Amino acid sequence: MISCDTLRLAATSRASYRCPVQRTPQRRLSIARISLRPGETPEQAQERRMRESQQVEERVASICDLADWDRATAAAGDKLVVLEVESEKLCQTGLDEEPELQECPDVKFFSLSADDPDVGPLLDNLGIEVIPSVQFWKAGKLLWEHRGVNQLEQDLGEGVLYFGDSAAGGVKGSEHVTELHSREDLDSFVSSQEERVLTVVNLSISSADPCIHIFPAVLALARSFKGYAAFGRLMGDENSSTQGVLQAYNIMEVPTFLFFKNGREVGRHVGSSRGDLIGKILQVQSEYGVAPPPPPKPAGAVPRRRR
User: What are the start-end ranges of the H helices in 60-128?
Assistant: First the structure.
């Protein structure tokens, strides 16, 4: 899994969109739990994390009522909107220890405190049944929702990547996995690849959890196999043309991965196991004489001395 699963919302000291919300004081970061970067001292790492926490506070705005929410979503336009609904009284999730929020300039983050006695109508309007919850919205449409504490941090990162095209370190998923929006896009993508390249097309739909969970691995593979395999993604429920693709290829389950060589389908894989997907890609490459990418050289590696 790539590091986009570290994307999280800070649950303390959020910036105010309209009305300030009182929060518990921020905890001082423990040096023991901060990952050191090369050449960085523990003290420097702590200072860096404090700066990152301040950036989190500036990125996440508080929502108080339905009018706030309507203004926020209208201002977001076509950008992905991520809303966290949390309660300090009911939920002790550990999220108040200021986890990282990576740079996602094309995503708007908001927080809603269920402890506020006036937010009941907004919670009903949003369909909130479980706290904590994280919702992903775009153009006024609810795309996906994570409910409860389990895998909250991981699902947040995966949702931001899947719906918002943003990963850790400023990586854009579409720079490595080509977005296909029609049958014409698919045919053009497949036919444009070089003979030595294996073409992998990820067929998904927007509301299927397995499709969301596998996509960080798809991005990681696309980056690792660059020059040896070309990756594309088509959302089968995006429009009538993409729905037609699912029907034409008799897709019964998602995610399904289609493999093409020289414009011809040579195999497919169904499922969200990263290991199985890697194995299938290497198998198809071997069967059709497509060279796999060379293994990365470990940092600090030296040639073995033979006697």
Answer: 66-76, 120-126
